[in-house]
Description:
- This is Carboxypeptidase regulatory-like domain-containing protein.
- The chain is mainly beta and about 150 residues long.
- It is built from 1 helix and 10 strands, in the order H-E-E-E-E-E-E-E-E-E-E.
- The chain has a single domain (about 25-140), classed as Immunoglobulin-like (Sandwich), CATH 2.60.40.
- Strands 1, 2, 5 and 10 form a 4-stranded mixed sheet that branches.
Amino acid sequence: MLKQEIRNVACLVIALVVAAGCGPKTDRLPISGTVTLDGAPLDSGSIRFNSRPGEKLQSAGAMIHDGAYEIPAEQGLLPGIYIVEMSSPDTKAPPIMVGGDDGSPKFPVAPDRIPPEFNSGGGKTIELSRDGDAKFNFEVTSSSKK
């Protein structure tokens, strides 16, 4: 009887050790931070981090709410240098017409409150390293305030 109890305890310990080692593992890093627009927390928008041209394609992004964003490790990025892109449509401004360059019809969109240097091709980058802090804060000044 004692041998059976010892076996049961041993099996339970082995099962717990195996189960503890089977959790999700990732080499990706979480990323978080804040975004201000003209000194105030950005009420809403999106942020994306993209690999640079010519490098292995990687991308991660999140919504910005009340000036904060967070990307969990499972959806994060590997260490490296990434291009930052942000967007925050101004729904109170009159729409602007876009498209039509190739003969297709133009359509209205809300103008972006984020200036071009934080949009596609703007050149803002972050360096994400395993040893560094993965918290990146951005102070954005709108085009009208420059």
